[in-house]
Write a structure and sequence with these properties.
This protein is α/β, with parallel strands linked by helices. The protein has four domains: 1-54, no CATH class; 56-173, Type II secretion system, protein E, N-terminal domain (GMP Synthetase, Chain A, domain 3, 2-Layer Sandwich), CATH 3.30.300.160; 177-273, 2-Layer Sandwich (Beta-Lactamase); 280-489, 3-Layer(aba) Sandwich (Rossmann fold). It is 44% helix and 21% strand. Strands 14-13-15-16-12-17-18-19 form an eight-stranded mixed beta sheet, sandwiched between helices. The longest helix has 15 residues, at 310-324. The chain is elongated and about 100 Å long.
Amino acid sequence: MVENYMADTSKRKLQLGEILVKHGLISSNQLKDALNRQGQVGGQIGSILVEMGLITTDDLLNFLSKQLGVPSFNLLKVDVAPEVLKLLPRDRIMAMKVLPIGVDENTVTLAMVNPNDMISIRDIEFLLGKNVKPVVVPSLQMEAAIRSILLHPDNRLTGESIEMEALKTESKKAPALISLLRYLASSNATDMLLTAGVPPSIKFSNDIKRASMDALTPSVCEEYAKEIMSENAWKVFLNKGDYDLAVTYPEIGRFRVNLYRQRNSVSITLRHITDVLFSLEKLRVPNWVKEYILMPQGLIIVSGPAGHGKTTTLAAMVDFININRRCNIITLEDPIEYLHKHKKSNVNQRDIGLDTESFYEGLKHVFRQDPDVIVVGEMRDPDSFAIALQAADTGHLVITTVHASTAASTIERIINMFPPHQQNLIRTRIADNLLFVLSQRLVPLKKGEGRVLACENIINSFGVKNLIREGKTHQIKSQMLTGTDEYTSLESSLSKLYSEGLITFEDGLQYSENKQFYKDTTKVV
């Protein structure tokens, strides 16, 4: 543990990592990450910190020099003639991790990983008949320099050749998890995929791009998983084969993580969650939504495929209520992604698996918590939905998401959760309590670098209520194509995005449900 590692340093010489923490170059959490990495791949802690991008080579050399009391040297700036290198036999260079980099009449300048190794220094002084002037160098640079000498024994040793060898080795190593997280957080990618048998992959607007490095091994993927999870969570994962959680790295950000087993190995999907709660306007959610989400009771459903921003839209709705109402909000999430501060409202966020066993268990007891607004991350079973309908019917605003392809099919999807003998009653309860359904897609922007929201909606007007009660929800889609206030089709939304120059005609066509209607209503320019 880092706490034990850092304890009572006054009674002994500080370790390099402790010095760097003391001087503010890294945090104790970053040191902990580096120590975990060292436990996985070995090596010197200083070189690992450089490899992870937490300090620069110059930082490392400066502190190595202070710690060891000898000058430092950056081998990436070296230029050594072959005759100088041949002062020492190659087996001595490899065994002692030393390298002659300069010589005059009386002295040889010796690059060393451990310049306090007096036995090696005396050995070399006796062998060469010269005084040794030690300089400290990073272990990764020393290893790369030795490989370069072995491959090209008759060539000059230059900083360029050492750097090339270092890059070759780095490309073969599995990257540190924290380096991958830092890259994901700084990129415009939506997800990072870690799977045995292929390199780390990132997802841009539904296209996968693989990193230029070796494929990950099953053992590396397992180490990544253990680094993210607690021991108890790891045991649950081994039993279930799937696990969702959210983790926060203070220096990087918050991530949603899904772990699952495939081909007897562990795969991981990572999504960076921004600290900023986007407004409804920023997300391009229709402005009329604000009127409905401030109502005291009813049912609001956000639907769409996985990965198309339902959770982000839900978070924006909660934030709008939080800013504009004084009420008690209870959320049930798996896992908690966006963290809400208490503004005008109290926001109580419950994590499935940590704060309550399941969505159903959380909903079963929610009425005792005196909620005004109940937010359910996802409706997955009829029992949970029955309680949600009861809540909407008894003076609560309920907001939830459902996986469904269209707004109309969302309603049918819910009804079909229930056995046939209950479906007429459920139709009536949905018709009585539904406020609106918002079905959404995220479409790649024409200029790249992100996606934009396209959505269709059904507002539960008098006409919609009748269609739901009579089991004629299939007629809603045809009504939507006429473009009334109660219905807005996905195709109309896509056509508008195209006319604004935000998406290409081809992307709009790809995401359309009714492709002919989209073609007929979109003026191609």
